[in-house]
Amino acid sequence: MKLSxxxxxxxxxxxxxxxxxxxxxIAFYIDIGQDMGAQYFMPxxxxxxxxxxxxxxxxxxxxxxxxxxxxxxxxIGWCVTxxxxxxxxxxxxxxxxxxxxxxxxxxSAFILLMALESALFRLGCRKVIxxxxxxxxxxxxxxxxxxxTYYCLFWHCLSPASLMALYLTNYHESVDFIQSNLxxxxxxxxxxxxxxxxxxxxxxxxxxxRRTLADDPTAGRMGALALLTLATVYAQSWYLPQTxxxxxxxxxxxxxxxxxxxxxxxxxxxxxLMIDSKMTLAAKAPGTxxxxxxxxASRNYMKAYTPDFPFEDTPWLNEKLAQGDPGFLxxxxxxxxxxxTVPVLQRALTEQSQYNGKEFFESASIIDVAKKSGYETWWFxxxxxxxxxxxxxxxxxxxxxxxxxxxxSYNFSDKYDESLxxxxxxxxxxxxxxxxxxxxxxxxxxxxxxxxxxxxxxTAEGESTVTSLPSYANxxxxxxxxxxQVFDYAQKNLNLQAMVYFSDHGENLEISHNPDVFSFDMVRxxxxxxxxxxxxxxxxGHTQALRSHQSRYFTNDMLYDTICGLLNAPSSRYxxxxxxxxxxxGFRRETLxxxxxxxxxTEDPNGLPEEQP
Length: 613
Hints:
- By secondary structure, the protein is of the alpha/beta class.
- It is built from 20 helices and twelve strands.
- The chain has a seven-stranded mixed β-sheet, with helices on both faces. A three-stranded mixed β-sheet has the order 8-3-10, with no helix packed on it.
- Helix 1 (about 5-30) packs antiparallel against helix 2 (about 40-60).
- The termini are far apart.
């Protein structure tokens, strides 16, 4: 079919407008430091361009026009609000996949509103349809508006913590909040602004009606509108639950539900722990036990574990190991049970493991065991209190006698791990203390995890410092320093009896630790234990077992039982075969798995045959 000159001109205009829309948004993301990533926006390039070109064909309304402006603003609001406010709040990048989801949802919302409006106007009742569309625009912009309002009030983007407050707020608290933060006159002005917005949208929609009804409908146009409606409804149903704000809301709902379920049975689980407190480490060698939970640390990139690694990023640990202290034990073949934090730690901190089929909400925790063993329990975290990455962890943490977080904001703190050191001064050295320190470690983006004085290893020119090997090595170097400070302070001031360090999971420097593209460097983790002379004398059996296991294979979902053994606190909720500190430890490389049973450790190409004890 030969196209007329007018048709050719229209196609060119539609294509240019669609391209401008796409390019401007991509440029916007890049400008605020939130690059969507070519691997995300390239696959959607053609479908988005096609949809944006079909809209003026089907509706007879250009996408950049007064008539389309309310729908365009609604879509753009979803595309840009969270990435922009996140960038302003944290001055760091958000997940590229989430930016892409926001972009798709916003753009498909724009296309859907345009197609729906054109179809509705064919039914007549222009003023009624125009009013309905204005209300839809208002409702569509409600969530971006709430996010922007919150930012203007607190200079911080919405986080799970703030959404939690909104979720639990009643009507009277809402009124008090508005009055205290806005006042009566500003509140009235806001509502007046809403009215003006609705009226302006109404006028624009009347112009839309005039344009779209100027030409008679054709089968091609109506077919295009029907196709766009179906495609965008599908896109909304698939991507809307994955957008940034939906992700935050799901975190809140999940956290509330989990809290209720975990809390209901906690006292019963605690009471079921029957531990002979006269036989525990606290009774035999009183003092402090410290557990440090690392983040995204891989032994592949640590000099103490990989001698041919080019960067000296573990000087303190190397020095301790070189001194030959019999109480300082490095474990060479430790693995994580999964490549993401919460699935790992909800198992490491509780009875639940890959091997026993127990549920998290039915399990006792290391905090419970420490309490029953005669310890005052402490939890200090430099990771967020709320969010999809730490909700289960927080449930365990809040059962401690004392629990504090350096930052209650979004998932990841922007504070350095040395902010945790100050909390150690709260401990009474004359008491038995069990302390958990949860650090940010080497979580992406690596260059954000250490102060400038630890930029020892320089990134090559032209390479991004965000995810480079030198930046990662600097983050490991900083963690090594933090561990040295914790150890030195505890040994001098807190009667340190034992200290354990392990990482939740490892890291692949090209793809981080995404389980969908699994590789074994995501689960190869560092782990070491310090046992004081008093500990070694009080519990020689556990000491000898740990020494003999330095080359044995272990997965960190068995840490709960290992802590039980370390504290000499067996109970009916303890399995000695999963206790790395027991001579009856019953697992070998051939029987261990990672990724919750999906991959045997024998698949690891870098794994060495296990030495016989």
